[in-house]
């Protein structure tokens, strides 16, 4: 069943989009990630313009993050005060990212920026994740299931900056400047790449801000709700690149896929899951890089500037 996507200006099989959303949902349930950094490149592959894929991907993140936050709120693993500070930085970063996005769009270079951003970030994150996963897998084979607990530093450079605030849920008394800077970085990524930024946010919250792991995921999801919603609104107002039929089909498929993935995830070890996810990230990165290097089928395209 073909469906016309009015904003993307392409016709795509509706069941194909449901299946794509389901695949990303399975990955989300299987690996415990939002899936935005994989969903957007996959939309590239089926012919969705990068600008539309980014804006629509940000739209889907709002719903998935909201459902995740509800579960964490019940477990009291969300630092609301830290989340608000991160949101302030995220909104500022998203606005800056939209300005850069619009500037490059007017120059006709936004598609190249999006693709290059994904190649760089997926390559770095996938490579580091793959190496760490192999080390963890080798260690688990030598030592069995027992793992050494990860100790975070109790005091680092963020404790020396001014404008300190107490974050009781995280047990921290640190400057608000580093969380705002981290939020700004994630906001820029959300605007340009259409991702939640969890693959950057979570390590930064643990190793830079020194937050306990148990509140990191819930606080990250809480932060991205406002940032992703704000990013979606700016894209819709300034670029008109949010395709609602596309978002709805992907969301429906993702809901069902996440349930399947969560069931499959219980059958595999954590180390095996991380290796598979890293390999998948590197595979997507390689495909994007290959598309940049290969000669396109159409050397010229006709576009009407607004």
From TrEMBL:
InterPro entries: TM_pro_TauE-like, TSUP/Inactive_protease-like. Keywords: Cell membrane, Membrane, Transmembrane, Transmembrane helix. Its main location: membrane. It is a multi-pass membrane protein. One of its GO terms (cellular component) is plasma membrane. The chain crosses the membrane at residues 12-31, 37-63, 84-104, 116-137, 216-238, 244-261. This is Probable membrane transporter protein. It comes from Tropicimonas isoalkanivorans.
